[in-house]
Amino acid sequence: MSPFPATLPPPDVIPLRGGPVLRWGVLAPGRIAGGFVWALHQHTDQRVHAVASRDPERARQFASSYGVPRVHASYEQLVADPDIDIVYVASPHSEHKRQALLAIAAGKHVLVEKPLALNAHEARDIAHAARAAGVFAMEALWSRFLPQTLLVDRLLREGILGDIRLVTADFGARFDFDPQGRIFNPALGGGALLDIGIYPIWLAHFVLGPPQRVLATGSLAQTGVDGQVALVLTHASDAQALLHTTLFAETPQEAAITGTHARLQIDGRFFSPSGLTLTSPDGAHRVRWTDTSGLQGSEGLAHQAAAVARHIAEGLTESPLHPLERSIALLETIDAARGQLGAASPVG
Q1: Which residues lie closer than 8 Å to 203 by C-beta, 6 or more apart?
Q2: Cβ distance 115 to 97 under 8 Å?
Q3: Does residue 114 carry a catalytic annotation?
Q4: Which of 114, 124, 269, 311 is catalytic?
């Protein structure tokens, strides 16, 4: 066992500015798309050149609010725009596959908000289409590109934590019940697992790989979607992940990775810019790291956009940090959990 580190190494962060620049188009402008565009324009050299919505007035208001120069009357017009390099899909989950395939068929690179699709079957369809077309495609799992995640990756590769035995993570938030809104409506792909539970599940996959066994228990919301879920994932070498998500209450939103040499605690809101504490097994030694970029909350989306631009400039059609097979594996785990719960969902 190597000595406990006195300090933590710096993460290998991709620069936000000074690299290749893409011309982005946005499908389905809403709150999530607004945060993404604002982060791009505020913290990177990336620029959004066009937006399209089923509601033209909504698209015009979005363009005015975020400085987007062009509004298209339809999704089809946007993906056909020769001045657009990549399409960002920010629609409800139920529309991800259709809009991703629309962009891919037009020869555009595509970044699809998480989850990549409603289920693993739909995700495979997107992956197959993108690979056949030779375009870049990725699920917008922005947490993978944050400085703290890049640091966690380095610590794992260098064996600082030893053999990983346990990952714990939770993400709970209280949502007002709206049977027609995207959170609770099964027709829109509602439910905790697809919307916020994907973050704890992603962390377990990132650290331990896909699980060999999924055990899920929980309760359904009034509309039949999964409202609260506890998961036990069993991975290779019998390592486990204990995960939780809920639509009914705010939780600490913390995560921890425990190995034979050390334990790594990720601060609350582990999925956004945060901090880390590395602790020795006996608790006698601690090392602290905090994100000093100044980016907070959804501003961290800037890291993802800069990484995507770099990947495409390098000629890649998938991200080596978050490849399509990982997105498919995430949905396989979610599919298994939802099946055990009997959660309602549209068939993709």
Answers
A1: 143, 167, 169, 241, 255, 270, 271
A2: no
A3: yes
A4: 114
Nearest to residue 122, comparing CAs of 92, 98, 156?
A: 98
Sheet containing strand 226-234, strands side by side: 213-220, 226-234, 240-246, 164-172, 255-259, 263-266, 275-279, 286-290
What residues contact 292, with CB distance under 8 A and at least 6 apart? Answer: none
User: 54: which DSSP letter?
Assistant: S
Q: Which two tokens stand for residue 331?
A: 């949905």
String of DSSP letters for 79-129? HT-TT--EEEE-S-GGGHHHHHHHHHHTT-EEEEESSSSSSHHHHHHHHHH
* Pairing, β 263-266 against β 255-259: antiparallel
**Torsion 144-150-152-156 (CA) sign:** positive
| Residue showing tokens 């995700």 | 123
Per residue in 266-284, pLDDT (tens digit) is: 999 999 999 999 999 999 9
pLDDT in tens, 199-229: 999 999 999 999 999 999 999 999 999 999 9
Q: How confident is the model at residue 347 (pLDDT cuts 50, 70, 90)?
A: low
Across the beta sheet with 109-113, the strand order is: 70-72, 47-52, 23-27, 86-89, 109-113, 137-140
| Residue 124 in tokens | 């495979």
SS3 240: strand
HSE on the CB side for 94, CA within 13 Å? 14
Treating both helix axes as pointing N-terminal to C-terminal, what angle do 324-341 and 120-133 enclose, rounded to 10 degrees? 160
pLDDT in tens, 109-135: 999 999 999 999 999 999 999 999 999
Q: Which two tokens stand for residue 95?
A: 């529309």
Quote the pLDDT of residue 16: 97
**Strand pairing report for 86-89 and 240-246:** unpaired
Q: Which amino acid is at 24?
A: W
The residues near 113 (Cβ < 8 Å, ≥ 6 apart) are 32, 88, 89, 90, 91, 96, 139, 140
3-state DSSP assignment of residue 61: helix
